[in-house]
Amino acid sequence: MICEKIFRSRQGKTVVLRVYSEEGRIEKIEVTGDFFADENDIEYLERSLKELKPAKVEVIGIEVDELLEKVKECIS
């Protein structure tokens, strides 16, 4: 199953979050949008979100806890 959340971050950036899950388990997470971050940081962020953990990365335009909240909405 794919849960897709398209939203405006608190800082006004467009974010597209896709959570791929199967039988209640998160298989993959994709985060895209008009925010700014290093590609390696995005990959680390996606892995951390998959484990439902906040990532210590700098993303200009979105807050990591905001993404984690949306991921939890997808799996609940």
From TrEMBL:
EC number: 6.3.1.20
Catalysed reactions, semicolon-separated: L-lysyl-[lipoyl-carrier protein] + (R)-lipoate + ATP = N(6)-[(R)-lipoyl]-L-lysyl-[lipoyl-carrier protein] + AMP + diphosphate + H(+)
Keywords: ATP-binding, Ligase, Nucleotide-binding
Domain Lipoate protein ligase C-terminal: 16-56
One Gene Ontology term of the molecular function aspect: lipoate-protein ligase activity
Pathway: Protein modification; protein lipoylation via exogenous pathway; protein N(6)-(lipoyl)lysine from lipoate: step 2/2; Protein modification; protein lipoylation via exogenous pathway; protein N(6)-(lipoyl)lysine from lipoate: step 1/2
InterPro entries xref list: Lipoate_protein_ligase_C
Recorded superkingdom: Archaea
One GO term of the biological process aspect: protein lipoylation
Keyword Lipid metabolism among UniProt keywords: no
Enzyme class, first EC level, given as a word: ligase
Protein name (database record): lipoate--protein ligase
Lineage: Archaea, Thermoproteota, Thermoprotei, Sulfolobales, Sulfolobaceae
